[in-house]
Specification:
It is a single chain. By secondary structure, the chain is α+β, with helices and mostly antiparallel strands. It has 2 domains: 254 residues, CorA soluble domain-like (Beta Polymerase, domain 2); 61 residues, Methane Monooxygenase Hydroxylase, Chain G, domain 1, CATH 1.20.58. Helix content is 58%, strand content 16%. A 7-stranded mixed beta sheet has the order 2-1-3-7-6-5-4, with helices on both faces. It is rod-shaped and about 120 Å long. The two termini are 68 Å apart. 30% of the residues are buried.
Length: 323
């Protein structure tokens, strides 16, 4: 689906353009370019953009199939950038990933978005409100989209951090719950998020260090700010991953301790029940020559002995915190 297509000259949007051909007609000159936005396009829709902008077939194949790792590649005069977008679904405790494929040339930007995270309509509005920034050409669009994607990583981290705190409380609560499944699910989401952010470090670093040709000199320093934000994001992801490993180990330790406590309680009750069982078993053998068989107080004495020994054992185990 074509979301928006517009031509810009000198930082200002030209008259609303309804077709790609009309947009290309007004891009003659160094200060003009076209910005085409697509959302989950079909092969036929994307083929139009491929023919208009002469996009490389390998980059086009990646954009149609999606599910690519973040990367930056150069095909002739066209820069191809793959970004992983993310948003956190709190109820499901899952990170929903999408992708943005950017094709940046000297007179065009083609943005192909898959998924619902990191919508670009707001990016276009913000840039159109800054004609001085937009006058820097496609480099300004590339920076704005990168900045939005990286900024959208922060709410994802906050959602993960909140769930990790809840898991920690469950692990050390007196309710005796075992949230091991929830811990493993969070670990999986953190690892997926790690794979989505860490590979992007190299691409942004190349842009921040000026190793990519065609980036406007005015915009190039702004990539350093994006790189700094991305570094903080990846550091927090690593911290969350290590914290979940610690939580998992603590949970396993807590499970072991609770099992030991349960075994001590079971052993204590078994010991308390041994004496009555032993006396009842002995006097239940119906032998003739057993003490107290003919005594009138035999039954109360045996039952009393059972009660006294059981109470003494109970108090002993209770004193040692076994019960």
């Amino acid at each position: 689906m074509i979301i928006d297509v517009a031509a810009y000259r000198g930082g200002e949007r030209c008259e609303d353009v309804v077709s790609l051909d009309r947009a290309l007609d007004v891009t003659e000159g160094e200060d003009a370019f076209v910005w085409l936005g697509l959302h989950e396009p079909t092969a036929e829709e994307f083929d139009v953009a491929c023919r208009r902008f002469d996009l490389h077939e390998l980059a086009v194949e990646d954009a149609i199939k999606a599910h690519q790792r973040p990367k930056l590649e150069i095909y002739g005069d066209t820069l191809s950038v793959v970004l992983k977008t993310a948003r956190y679904l709190d109820e499901e405790e899952e990170v929903e990933f999408g992708e943005i494929f950017l094709f940046v040339g000297h007179a065009f930007v083609v943005a192909v978005r898959h998924g619902e995270a990191s919508g670009l309509a707001g990016v276009r509005r913000d840039l159109e409100a800054r004609p001085d920034r937009l006058a820097c050409g496609p480099s300004a669009v590339l920076h704005a989209i990168l900045d939005r994607v990286v900024d959208d990583y922060v709410p994802v981290l906050e959602g993960i951090d909140n769930d990790i705190e809840e898991v920690e409380q469950q692990v050390f609560s007196r309710a005796g719950r075992n949230p091991v499944e929830r811990i493993y699910n969070l670990k999986r989401e953190v690892l997926d998020f790690h794979r989505a952010t860490v590979p992007l470090m190299d691409a942004v670093a190349r842009l921040a260090e000026g190793k990519v040709a065609g980036v406007h000199a005015t915009i190039q320093p702004y990539f350093r700010d994006v790189h700094d934000h991305l570094v903080r994001v990846t550091e927090r992801v690593v911290v969350d991953r290590d914290l979940l490993n610690s939580v998992l180990e603590a949970n396993l330790t807590q499970v072991g301790l609770r099992q030991n406590e349960d075994m001590r309680k079971i052993s204590a009750w078994v010991a308390i029940g041994v004496v009555p069982t032993l006396l009842a078993g002995i006097y239940g053998m119906n032998l003739e020559n057993m003490p107290l068989l003919d005594h009138s107080a035999a039954f109360p004495m045996v039952v009393g002995t059972m009660v006294v020994v059981a109470v003494c054992l109970f108090l002993l185990f209770r004193r040692r915190d076994w019960l």
